[in-house]
Amino acid sequence: MSARGNGHAKILMTGNEAIAEGAIRAGCRFYAGYPITPQNELTAYMARHMPQEGRVFIQAESELAAVNMVFGASATGVRAMTSSSSPGISLKQEGISYLAGCRLPAVIVNIMRGGPGLGNIAPSQADYFQATKGGGHGDYHSIVLAPASVEEAYRTMFDAFDLADTYRTPVMVLGDGMLGQMMEPLILEKGPVRQHAKTWALTGCRGRKPNIVRSLFLKEGVLEALNLQLQKKYKAIQQKEQRWEELLVEDASVILVAYGGMARIVKEAVRGLRAGHKKIGFIRPISLWPFPVKAFRRPGKKSVKYLVVEMSYGQMVEDVRLAVECRAPVEFFGRSGGGIPTEEEILKKLHTMS
Per DSSP, what are the bridge partners of residue 282? Predict the structure, then answer.
């Protein structure tokens, strides 16, 4: 039996390893990366197992080189991926913009660390703006998915590659050092791997007109027309691909909102408060872009307050306020630079809202 499991027995994996294994089973054929903590286990796992599957692993000379290698591989129609942590993702932003401009599918994993600058290797969620508001230059979006457990991280990779191919767009999987490093049991179930016709790919032009992949358009009006096509696609994604988890929201007077690793702590706090007969609910955005505004727009819902908890000094809270549209008060509590809000601190903040 392979050390990677047979698809039925429970095995222990870190989040980084689960993401890598999920990518392999989702059909990733090309990976290029460059080492940076706290996601190095992901790169190491791909280095061991991609060649065993007859696929391509490259440790590039830099983050810039890695994302541009992914660009080239994606242009040929294969499923391609890179991963890094916060400063490395910053270096990849130009390449991600090129992927979006050329309408090329790719998966980018960011296991966030403390910042700004080199910061530290502790968990953080301070890259939310970078991930959801573009990050690179131009009017574009990447789909952003935020798993909260090792098992979900594994399953998310099937979704990430499928969304990338469906919409011909970069998809970012956004985790943090806590998710990347924690170890949990999971079953390596076979996920859905859909086949996508890639008639646009650069596979040689025998018997057909040549395909061209580019994002440089100098003739007046041509680039604007491309941008309008992209905006039409983004609107379709916003309508169809909102994802979230909710718990005990129907009668809640206060709803706590958190994503990723932070959501695990918040969810336990909510369960404890419910055991004490407090009417507290919970919403976990899973798609950070498109943001799940539908979770916050409930016709006829009585007055409710929201408390957003993040490992940052206030980023997702802006999207919650936009989603609520001033119909309810939204408060915030967060820590950053490796600081993780505790259950006790969350309860203290809730006390000030009552």
Answer: 247, 256
